[in-house]
User: Fold this.
Amino acid sequence: MITDLFEEIYAKILEYDTIIIHRHVRPDPDALGSQLGLKALITKKFPEKKVYAVGTDVENLSFMGTMDQVENEAYENALVIITDTANRPRIDDKRYTKGKFLIKIDHHPDEDIYGDISLVNTQASSCSEIIADLAISLDARLPMNAEAARLFYGGIIGDTGRFLYPATTSKTMRIVSELMEYDFSASEMGQMMNTNSKKIANLSGYVLQNIEVNDLGVAHVILTQEALEQFGADDSDTAPVVPLPGTIEGIVCWGIFVEQATGGFRCRLRSKGPVINEVAKRHGGGGHPLASGANAADIAEIEEIIREFDELVVAWQK
Ligand code: AMP
Assistant:
């Protein structure tokens, strides 16, 4: 039962004086919202505890919050909590192994089972939804507060594409309704997430103009280093363009393939129906049924992924 896990996690939060919260590399709003929201919950209720959020800062998501600098010594006798991270290689800051007790809280398929306690709920829209649910369920023992509500709201709208994707459920909406009781501006958070720099707007134009779509509705765009440089953009700027092909009629699944400075391509894969995470797994990645990531060594591997998408669409249409 998930509520039993909530109790177990709460007991560990009570037990430890130092709590260090990690999340995945290349964080998105849900990674930061779940990590920093949990930190805000614990800090407000237990001001005497040392609570840290660690990992690399992301400039364009600085409105979510910033990371703490933590000495190695802090990990001795620390409780380490990892949010939103399915597999250990993707945990940002490898010192997570140095703590005394490890908790995983996540909503991705549980491919890599880790943690002394593991709370994985793949039915949840986002990791932020799970932790907001935990706080609402623990009630006065870990009360929600305005900053945590703001962060969880940001995480939820990030992972649901502002309630567009099928992972959005009535429970998501019930939790969002509770969050909106707190003193933060949901509209401001929505506007922040909806506002892109000019370089992203230009990159979006490039993506829309260079989409290749086949008869099955499988689409792809390759963003070479040269194309990115043209807009002064890099890999970290590509998140806002990933949903764009899904706004075009007839496109069923797609990939944005981002050439890496170190060689090879990061594959950002999305679908409106066919389950694509098995394809991602075959190419060194994983993720959700309709939103996955992988790596391609070269153009030939990209072509292979597109071919596998074609097969998926044919099977799905049947
Ligand atoms: P992205 O396109 O990076 O936003 O990733 C979409 C989803 O796929 C996220 O839920 C990620 O957790 C997952 N994902 C991305 N890259 C990888 C990877 N290399 N291995 C496993 N999962 C991944």
